[in-house]
Write a structure and sequence with these properties.
mainly alpha, 386 residues
Length: 386
């Protein structure tokens, strides 16, 4: 489309259907081929069935985690992988249920808000833009980390350990810290197979920043052939460059300030990532930062009427066109979810503290039943499209 627009031509391009999970198993095989080229597999001779199982291992096939050969294949040859484990089955089913709950009970609940706001980007006001942006920030996290938990849980039922892919990313106090917590296996892939081969930090600071930006631009392009994805990647490349440059100053911000700046930068990035085009992204960001006025819930004749004298615009709850019904209750839910991701332990930490028991079995069973009863509409995992 961009080439046609640039050269003012019109080509008929047939619709191409890609195989399911093409991006993830392509990454897996790229990593393996590079490792072979580097000589890192000299002492390992894998048969075709073993290699095929490694590439097509079903729990992580659709959306990761992205697994390296040395992390997975040796487990296929361990005797304990073939011995039934009550503990692994219990913990795996628990982790699977928690992941499914993240997706069905939380991420899908936020989906209508996200759709309304981003489908009406040019018309939303300050409050609606922030609700939409925060809703997508949470929806994407609970959707993708939920799938990762499910994949790790299913693998654990087969006595296979997959790497952790999320570690409370919204608790990060810097962008560098964020990428050590968000989609961890992708971060390692980009580091080991793009950033370091480009030269990493070995060729001076200017080259380091260039390598960071190029790596993240390509990471953004991997998510989709659209300018919003490229811009999102570029933003994070700039974020990382600023973060590394700031460290050179040897000036440490208070953790609370670092966390706030980091989280706001992440939310801005997700707005660009989710928007249908750059114009929509710009419109939502302008609304979020008050460039189109600051509209907040409230009565013009109520106790907060004085806010209108300092430039804020008060609007009745039922006048917010691009928020769903039961606005007050849903805002309570949104606030509760934000508190949860900021302060509560994540599923990995919960699993590490659990031991199989009857009460755990009852609780997991009830949670799983609640999830199954909630599957009354079809919603796909967000990361399936990437």
């Amino acid at each position: 489309f961009n080439i046609q627009s640039f050269f003012n031509v019109s080509w008929t391009i047939p619709k191409i259907s890609f195989p399911l999970a093409i991006s993830f198993y392509t990454f897996t095989q790229i990593a393996y081929l590079v490792d072979v080229y580097r000589g890192e597999t000299k002492d390992r001779h894998y048969s075709l069935p073993t290699y095929s199982l490694f590439v097509l291992f079903f729990p992580e096939l659709i959306a990761g985690p992205i697994v390296r050969h040395h992390q997975l294949i040796p487990q296929f040859h361990q005797l304990r992988s073939f011995v039934f484990s009550h503990k692994n089955l219990a913990l795996g089913l628990t982790l699977f249920s928690l992941g499914l709950a993240k997706k069905v009970l939380i991420a899908d609940r936020l989906s209508p808000w996200v759709t309304l706001v981003f489908n009406n980007a040019a018309a939303v006001n300050f409050t609606e833009a922030w609700v939409g942006a925060l809703s997508y920030t949470l929806q994407l996290y609970f959707d993708f980390s939920g799938y990762s938990d499910m994949a790790i849980g299913v693998a654990l039922m087969f006595n296979i350990q997959l790497p952790i892919n999320f570690n409370s990313p919204y608790k990060s106090i810097s962008i560098v810290d964020f990428w050590r917590r968000w989609h961890i296996t992708l971060s390692y892939f980009l580091r080991d197979y793009l950033y370091i081969p480009l030269g990493g930090s070995r060729r001076g600071e200017i080259r380091r920043y260039f390598n960071l930006i190029v790596t993240m631009l390509l990471g953004g392009l991997w998510h989709g052939a659209g300018w919003t994805f490229v811009l999102w990647g570029g933003l994070h490349g700039v974020y990382l460059s600023i973060n590394h440059g700031w460290r050179k100053l040897n000036f440490t911000l208070p953790q609370l300030v670092g966390w706030l700046i980091t989280f706001l930068a992440i939310v801005v990035g997700w707005v660009v990532f989710r928007a249908q085009n750059l114009q929509d992204a710009t419109a939502i960001l302008k609304a979020m930062f008050g460039l189109e006025g600051v509209v907040i819930p409230g009565r013009t004749d109520g106790r907060f009427a004085w806010l209108s004298h300092i430039g804020l615009q008060l609007q009745a709850w039922d006048k917010f066109s691009y928020l769903s019904e039961n606005i007050k209750q849903n805002l309570v839910l949104l606030t509760g979810l934000l508190i949860a991701v900021f302060f509560l332990p994540n599923t990995n930490e919960i699993i590490n503290k659990l031991s199989p028991s009857r009460w755990l079995a009852v609780g997991v069973g009830l949670l799983l039943c609640l999830c199954l009863f909630s599957l009354n509409q079809v919603t796909e995992f967000l990361y399936f499209q990437f």
